[in-house]
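Reviewers of the previous submission asked for a worked example of the structure-prediction workflow described in the proposal, so we include one complete record here. The input consisted solely of the amino acid sequence. No template or homolog information was supplied to the procedure at any stage.
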Amino acid sequence: MPKDSQHLRSQRLRAVNFQGDALRLGMNWTEEDLAKPQVLVESAYGMGHPGTFHFRQLIEEVSNGVYEAGGKPGVFNVSDICDGVVQATNGMSYSLISRDIMAAMIEIHALGHPHDGMVLISGNDKSVPAHLVAIARCNLPAIHLPGGTQLNAPDYVTSNKMWSMGAAVERGEIPKDDLELAQRGACPTCGACQFMGSASTGQVLAEALGLALPGSALVPEPLTKLLRYARATGKQILRLIEEDLTPDRILTREAFENAITLHAAIGGSTNALLHLPAIAREIGVEITIDDFDRIHRRVPVLANVKTTGRYPVEYFWYAGGVPAVMLELRDLLHLDCLTVTGKTLGENLEEIEHSRFFFAERLGYLRNVKVPRDEIIRPRTDPFGTDGGVAILRGNLAPEGAMVKTFSVPKEMHVHVGPARIFDFEDQAIKALVERQVTSGNVVVIRYEGPRANGMPEMYFASAILSSDHTLNTTTALVTDGRYSGAMRGPCIGHVTPEALDGGPIALLEENDLIEVNIPERRLAIVGVQNQHLPEDEVERILADRRRHWTPPEPRHSKGILSLYARVARGASDGASIT
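From that input alone, the workflow returned the following structure tokens.
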């Protein structure tokens, strides 16, 4: 029998609220159910995208596991929106703030009702970080269940390819039938998209933090293995409740450093730079973008997976997934970190390494497709990328930081100086790129797209057009105070802080100012005007003069949730959160 009922939060609250029992009995609870540990089973189930549409079975299996272990599940849902569906529309402005709103609703469900622990089920861009924020904030015994990944599509097509194909159709370069054929097959099953974007990265980070069962991140969705992880998660939460193993014992600074190490090794989404600091702050741990830069400098990229790499994420799981990467990087990890198994990370890895079945039941799938394991998860002696996953750039254009996905940037663009092409709105830049009005060597600047200006939407369409153009991809940079999709690749710098609306230097840029991007020196700076290099002090004088004449534009959003975001959002370097 789990934990002494007198020590359960649910039973303490029952003692002071006599109406609650009656209301629960009205939902066909039994008198025996009332006395059991009560477990919130919260999911992002909904019809927003394939990453949540399959969650009914997972909810059922988690609930079955809770029942089997002696608990009573309470099922709640807060669904998310899909970054891919809202991309390049006004809906994209709602994406990042949805993380905070989802986390707030889960907090309300978890702490407003008498729950003793929780299992949170999610697998996508904002739902996973929302769930991890809620786990840290509520500090009830909790486990995250990753929602799995799609199966590989025909011809290795992935849904993010639709953007460059759509632009090619608009230019008359390919027939529309090619686009429609790709659309029909790009998402053949439910699950997260088949690349190491924000959804896949989030699942990896949940496991790396110790909040998900070992090996549970990125299970191919059609496999019954995902259902077995769900059942096991439902059982395990009762053990955590009994032992009072709360997230504050798991989410230490060392656990976050482990997560950043894994983020580097998988070449993870740049959105993690927004999410991990926000999660850490909820538990009282300070993680900054400089921690990413420091750790990424010493960790090579090992995962040869899309979008920068060759293989779909499905194959990453077959190659051993998160545990395989951890074993390769064992000497760089804090192995004494506690996890939701009740054991340390080191103990978990020891069990996996000596298991008869853990790798055996996965690697057979790779033999089916005749791809060597070391081709997908590279050994450190032969990494996929040697320069780390991301770098933090600073300078007079980004005094508080900007980020770039280093290993996806062509070597020719690691150092670049070019004249600025300025756009105050994303759609203006997209039009210029589609119509080929951007020339080789330019630095395209998209501003007033930061958290307070416009919700910090992703500039993925612009980055996709740039990266798919063989000339521009090796000669032209993109700089923004917005952000990018996890699927982004190419010479794209984002999260420029302070943002333009706050009077950051990006707001002071003018056409043909010279911008320097220098990844080795971690520098992003204005180095001249009107195509002419100038001394640093002269540039500073010109910027100071422009500032005297600059006035912020009127708020783009005067009502609704985005108006709240415009008033209270933190900067991108601090997680862009509202709390």
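The chain has 25 helices and 13 strands. We consider this example representative of the routine output the project will generate in years two and three.
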